[in-house]
Amino acid sequence: MSGKSKFGFEPLEPADVKPRKREVGPMGAAVREAAGSLAESTETLVEQRRQNASDAKAFRTAQGEGRVLEMLRVDDIRTDDLPRDRIDLTATAGSDEMEELKASIRARGQKEPIEVFRTGAGFQLKKGWRRLTALKQLWQETGDTRFAVVTARVSSGPTDRIDLYIDMVEENVIREDLSFAEMAQVAITAAGEAGLEGQGADALVGRIFASLHKMKRSYIRSFVFLLEELGDVLPYPKAISRNLGVEVARRLQASPEVSQSLRSALTSVRSAEEQADVLSRTFAPPASRVSSGRAPDQKKAVKYEFHVGEAKVTARKGECRILSETDFSSIDRKRLQSAIEAFHRVLREE
Prior knowledge:
Pfam families: ParB_N. With about 350 residues, the chain is α/β, with parallel strands linked by helices. The protein has helices at about 25-65, 90-95, 95-110, 130-140, 160-175, 180-190, 200-210, 215-230, 240-255, 260-265, 270-280, 285-290, 335-350; strands spanning about 70-75, 75-80, 115-120, 120-125, 150-155, 305-310, 310-315, 320-325. A 5-stranded mixed sheet has the order 1-5-3-4-2, with helices on both faces. Helix 6 (about 180-190) crosses helix 8 (about 215-230), helix 7 runs antiparallel to helix 8 (about 215-230) and helix 8 crosses helix 9.
């Protein structure tokens, strides 16, 4: 049988068959590329939108929790909603410590943010009164615009008023920067607020200072009693030492009839030293009052400060602090020890 078809063609051998190359033409290539790019861009856009939604949610959460830092004008922050935790703000604003803080901010800028909360009228200060005051003073003194703004952590403000007091004192309490009188005054002020009526200052100590040891809260309660009894006639409440304040409060509770005479004696004091002497002598036994009498120049000051060159020295009971630009850690230990020993020898000399 002939292998030719009716058209006269013979079957092709497999070896003679060459595969046809199917190359994509220019138009097909363009269509495929456009389709691939569209699919890729769509996936990227969907992922970007998903990430943006996640970031926005995280930002709103952080903003609500007060973890977002903002740059605010110092003049836009009010301080009248929450009483400050310092008794004498005028003295603090003009103190050597404030000048040191201003020098630090002038040289290195603001390193720690303040904390504020939003109200219907704008921003109210929660924490960082000293930093805000330092910036305001620098702005007024220099006119430098870098001091006209402050870095602040902004929150919407807690719903519970007591939380504001806790947040306000927390930083200073941790740094042990508040006196017992100032901590007591915070509780007394909070107890007088309309939103906290029915909760006495003594009870609020346990809430505002819950993070402190119970013994320290006991000391604060003693000062609460002391300020409620004598606060209007105590010219230097911050200068009262812990032991003296606790002892006077204890004696007043045991002998309330002495309160009036003590109030009369305190109206004539002119210094923190005189105040401490009046409080100490009021409850001392008669024999002790005679034997412990000292000449005015022999009275021990509660605290005093002076400068030696550029170094600032602060002296108080059990502490002598030297603030200086000297890097004491770079001094040879034996040399520094020798200097301290010489310091003690001089103090022991009659």
